[in-house]
Amino acid sequence: MSKTKISSMIMIEATSNPTPADKRKAMMENPGFGTTFSDHMVVVRYSEEKGWHDGRLMARQPLPLDPAASVLHYAQEIFEGMKAYRGKDDEILLFRPEENARRFRHSADVMAMKPVPEELFLEAVHKLVEIDRDWVPDAEGGSLYIRPFQIASQPFLGVKPAKEYLFVVIACSVGSYFKDVSKGVPIWVSENHVRAVPGGTGTAKCGGNYAASLTAQAEGYEHGCAQVVFLDALERRWIEELGGMNVFFVMNDKTLITPPLKGTILHGITRKSIIELARDKGYTVLEQPYSLDQWREDARSGKLAEAFACGTAAVITSISKVCDTHGDFEIGKDGANNPVANELRESLIDIQRGRVADPYGWVERV
Ligand code: PLP
Ligand code: COI
Q1: Does residue 120 register a pLDDT over 90?
Q2: What is the rounded average pLDDT for all residues in the chain?
Q3: What are the structural domain ranges in the chain?
Q4: From the CA of 314, how far away is ligand 1's center (Å)?
Q5: DSSP code per residue over 175-225
Q6: Rounded to whole angstroms, how far apart are CA atoms 248 and 307?
Q7: Cα separation of 113 and 35, whole Å?
Q8: pLDDT, tens only, 241-285
Q9: d(C-alpha 5, C-alpha 56), whole Å
Q10: How far away, in angstroms, is 312 Cα from ligand 2 center?
């Protein structure tokens, strides 16, 4: 094992036995989502005495963790989701990574965790992608999904913000998040469970929000749906977001509506990018409350042309049908015909993959 100091923060410990090329290629042929992991990971430690220290890029391996580590008891944990794409001439591109670094800090603040400096976050992501660049698929729709996360590692059972943390970055080759998106996905309205409350952790990307969404998600699966849409906690009336995606409604007059960022939904980077892209294409984009009743009525009257979910994992995925205990409703005349979602998806992917000029400065080369 060779050790090279390549920056002030992260040392490289190159693996002596990365996955052989033929095996890696076979694994990447049909990677699915979240199971085909790359060879390396970055681990950086935090302690009160040393601050962030002992940054290492090493072979992917289990983490040594004391069974009393507070993350295992009180869920002091946050994460990010971002992607690296293979562009032309084999260049590897990241999409708005500084936005993820910023949101990671925000999540840390919400969860009373020591924030990872943005430069350290970006360095860790760059170094991991650089060393595992062979794991970035070149297939259309394929990418390297990067999962930075931070956990409270202090062995301590008192309920207090921890004094020790691990910041870790892992990555996996991925294809589409949903199995079949050609006709859009059906989604389930969660009537009994909410995801976030005002004053809660809804704007943080913390594991607890996702754990809390799983009962509703399971209910959705039982009803043949691929995702769950959550309503606001107070009135159970306003659409907030899906379990792992933001949502847009496309009216038939070139207007897009998306729920406003009022403290309970995640500030999606895809959402933010779509708002800019759509406005530049001449759409009117309104960040305003939209109710489930309105959604049902607009779908029935034909005022609503399309609806789509968006996020790093889902990119832009059309919603074909909405199901709840009051009866299902279909969106659009034909689930497969979603011209606005298609136009926006193509423009977004073209920028992410470096196929067109990037007037926004969103893409970063690794
Ligand atoms: N909302 C939730 C709950 C999510 O988990 C995600 C995914 O990260 C999003 C929205 C979309 O965010 P982004 O576009 O930054 O991936
Ligand atoms: C992402 O899009 O990065 C997420 O974290 C959402 C999750 C459904 C994988």
Answers
A1: yes
A2: 94
A3: 3-174, 185-352
A4: 9
A5: --SSS--TT-EEEEEESS--S--TTSSTTS-BHHHHHTTHHHHHHHHHTT-
A6: 6
A7: 28
A8: 999 999 999 999 999 999 999 999 999 999 999 999 999 999 999
A9: 10
A10: 6
Comparing C-alpha atoms, which of 28, 126, 138, 25 is closest to residue 87?
A: 138
Q: How confident is the model at residue 237 (pLDDT cuts 50, 70, 90)?
A: very high
Q: Which amino acid belongs to residue 329?
A: F
Per-residue burial over 66-82, b = 16 or more CB atoms within 10 Å of its CB, e = otherwise? eeebbbbebbbbbbbbb
Q: How far apart are the first and last CA of the chain?
A: 24
User: How long, in residues, is the chain?
Assistant: 366
Backbone angles phi, psi at 202, to 5 degrees: -55, -30
- From 77, 177, 317, give the residue whose CB has the most ligand 2 atoms within 8 Å, as the site to mutate: 177
* CA distance linking residue 216 with residue 194, whole number of Å: 8
Distance 200 CA to ligand 2 centre (A): 20
pTM (two decimals): 0.96
For the Cβ of 241 lying below 6 angstroms from any atom of ligand 1, the answer is yes
Q: Tell me the pLDDT tens digit for each residue of 290-333.
A: 999 999 999 999 999 999 999 999 999 999 999 999 889 999 86
Give me the mean pLDDT over the 125-129 stretch.
97
Give the architecture-level CATH label for domain 185-352.
Alpha-Beta Barrel (3.20)
- Farthest CA pair distance, the chain: 66
Tokens 């921890």, residue located: 162
Contact assessment for residue 143 and residue 84, using Cβ atoms and an 8 Å cutoff: yes
pLDDT at 6: 44
Query: Ligand 2: does its nearest atom lie under 6 Å from the Cβ of 209?
Result: no
Ligand 1 mean position, distance from CA 5 (Å)? 34
pLDDT at 63 over 60: yes
What architecture does CATH give domain 3-174?
A: 2-Layer Sandwich (3.30)
| Other CB atoms within 10 A of residue 17 CB | 7
- Residues 47, 163: contact at Cβ < 8 Å? yes
Q: Which tokens hold the place of 315? A: 């990119």
Residue showing tokens 């990872």: 116
